[in-house]
Amino acid sequence: MNAALTRIANSGVQVASTIKIGAGSGADVPHVERFFPGSRTLLVEMDATFEPQWRSLQAKIPSLAWAICGAADEDRDGYMRKNSLTGGKVAQEPSADATRIMHRRIDTLVREHQMQAPYFLRFDTHGAEMLVLAGATETLKDTSLIQMECYNFKHTMTFDKMVGSMRERGFRVIDMCEPLFRSDGAFWQVHLFFARDDHKAFKDNSFHVA
After folding, report:
1. Pairing relation of β-strands 70-71 and 76-82?
2. What are phi and psi of 208, to 5 degrees?
3. What are the pLDDT digits (tens) for 94-111?
4. How confident is the model at residue 89 (pLDDT cuts 50, 70, 90)?
């Protein structure tokens, strides 16, 4: 991650606000913010049990903000199903293992928290990426960078399909980090970084760029 963010920052990508979707504890916020001095972070997380950790982090980073909700395509009531200590999924219908929460569009949250463009969207959403993107149509217009955990198994939107989908939205892969391999050696997942397709890096197709 450190090497990828160093390369990206050196490439001239500008970031004023980071929106971390599926934020968990937010422990890596200070590390990421240092690559984009003066930027501000909004944590979006369904699980309210992380809030004490966010408050501790806010004591060090006063500009930190958070929203306890699921990121979705519409602002509505919904549910969360926890599937691990750190993960969960948005759900539309109630069930014995579901907790009632609000679902919010990223566009709504960006407006309410007065987050300034250009944006860096960080996804850790375990298969809900299309739902989140559908609620971020306005934000994407002013987004300079996207980090997304992409998969080779488990989810229908595998990494190759995600690359094509993001290309249709005007973004291309500029870097990657932290590939993960299954116990049998097969590629499992990777973090991909997408920059706008008009970024200067994509203007030259040669290997050695002056």
Report:
1. unpaired
2. -100, 115
3. 555 667 889 999 999 999
4. low
29-44 pLDDT, tens digit per residue, is: 999 999 999 999 999 9
* Pairing, β 17-21 against β 119-123: parallel
Between vectors from CA 85 to CA 64 and to CA 73, what angle results, nearest 5°?
60
Residue 159's Cα: distance from chain center in Å? Answer: 15
pLDDT of amino acid 82: 61
Question: Over the chain, what HEC string results?
Answer: CHHHHHHHHHCCCCCCEEEEECCCCCCCHHHHHCCCCCCEEEEEECCHHHHHHHHHHHHHCCCCEEEECEECCCCEEEEEEECCCCCEEEECCCCCCEEEEEEECHHHHHHHCCCCCCEEEEECCCCCHHHHHHCCHHHHHCEEEEEEEEECCCCCCEHHHHHHHHHHCCEEEEEEEEEEECCCCCEEEEEEEEEECCCHHHHCCCCCCC
